[in-house]
Design brief:
There is one protein chain. With 244 residues, this protein is α+β, with helices and mostly antiparallel strands. It contains nine helices and ten strands.
């Protein structure tokens, strides 16, 4: 493959290499947690210098898509490592640090996409979905209710048993069972009050203040794969975002 095929005059060569690598990742050429080919082989594949390739890899590493392990090589990021988990879990007690939550599955169901979800997931209105409702506990206390919508086109074989019996995180399940890697999220936070349902689940009084966090999760090539709304007990917990 010649470097002239990789780019246009407006596109830096290293960014074109990044795009080709993202396309390979999206095809499942290298799976979650797997080592990618050596720098020599990648240079030959893309027809670029080692400096250009390393600049492309540096960008993918800084965006948590790849991980370098000294002496072992460069790997596709996996969500069962603490650094990846806390890249996407952004809640903590007011006076504490982020810790692993205990997750309880409240409901798993099949549904169809309404206007909002169809826009968020870029699927047709009425398309089949898989929906998950989880209760997250921090230090044994109810802290967060997650409502998650997934397109059946990607997660049609997902079952309640898979969710309950997964050995690691939900994002790890996506990657290992369905080949869907979450590489970035877009979150918006707003103030709200607890409905009767969320107050009951979070042990709050209806109308108590909560945080409502709306998340879009994306895989390679900015493919939207998950729409999530989290309701958080604002009396004890806050939103915390920093580099993982």
């Amino acid at each position: 493959m010649k470097s002239s095929n990789l780019t246009s005059p407006e596109t830096p060569l290293y960014r074109a290499v990044q795009q080709r690598m993202l396309e390979a990742l999206a095809r499942g050429e290298w799976g979650s947690g797997e080592v990618i080919p050596s720098e020599k082989r990648l240079c030959e594949r893309f027809g670029v210098s080692i400096g250009t390739l390393r600049k492309a890899l540096d960008g993918l590493v800084s965006n948590h898509i790849l991980i370098r392990h000294q002496g072992l090589g460069t790997f596709v990021a996996a969500h069962d490592r603490p650094r990846q988990f806390f890249q996407f879990f952004n809640f903590a007690p007011h006076e504490g640090s982020r810790t692993y939550p205990e997750v309880k599955l409240l409901q798993f169901s099949r549904s169809s996409a309404d206007r909002l979800i169809s826009e968020k997931l870029r699927v047709k209105r009425g398309s089949e979905l898989r929906k998950i409702r989880n209760l997250l506990l921090l230090d044994g206390r109810p802290a967060i209710v997650d409502n998650i919508a997934l397109p059946a086109s990607l997660f049609g074989e997902l079952t309640e048993t898979m969710i309950r019996d997964r050995p690691s995180t939900l994002y790890s399940l996506y990657a290992e069972r369905f080949g869907v890697n979450i590489i970035r999220i877009d979150e918006r936070v707003r103030a709200n009050v607890a409905s009767a349902t969320h107050a009951r689940l979070l042990n709050l009084t209806p109308g108590a203040p909560i945080l409502e966090v709306r998340r879009m999760a994306f895989s390679f090539n900015d493919l939207p794969v998950e729409w999530r709304i989290s309701r958080v007990d604002a009396s004890r917990y806050e939103y915390v975002h920093r580099d993982a």
